[in-house]
Amino acid sequence: MEVFYLAGPMSGYPQFNIPLFDRVSRILRLGNPAWAIISPAELDSDAVRTAALASKDGILIDNKIAGETWGDILARDVRIVANECDGIIFLPGWVKSRGARLEATVGLLQRNFQFMLVDPRYIARAWINLTDVSQGYIARELYTQFGREIVEKNYERE
What we know:
Rossmann fold, two-stranded antiparallel sheet, 6 helices, 17% strand, alpha/beta, globular, 5-stranded mixed sheet
C-alpha cells in the first residue's frame, strides 16, 4: 500500500482549512483504496481539532493552539513525511504555506518520492483530479516563493 501525505495551507484559513482537508482525504480514500492517506487535520488531538474548527480566521495566538505550538505540530508532520510516506499530495495554495513548504522540502530529500497536485477546478465536485509533478517542479515552486518573500521583506525594511 502506498502512503501519501496531504499537504496544504491551514494557518490563516477559517477553521484552519480542516473541512477541505477532511473532504479531500475522504474522496481520495474512496477513489484510491490501495492508498493510505495521511491528513494532518486527522492527526491533531481532540483539543487542537476542536479549537481549530472553532476558529473563524485560522490565526494562532502566541504561536499556539490548545496549548500546542506550531512547531510541535509541524515536527510531528515532518517526521511522518520523512519516515512513513511514499509521496505528498498538495492542496491548492500549498506553496504559500510555511508548513507545506517544509514538508515539500523533506519530500525532496527522500528517494523515489512522488508529488501530486490537486486540481483546484475540481475541488468542489465529488471527485479529485490529481496531476503528477516532478521534483524539479516542486523545487522551482519553492525557490520562486522564497524569492518573492525575500523581496517583500526587503521592501518592508525600506
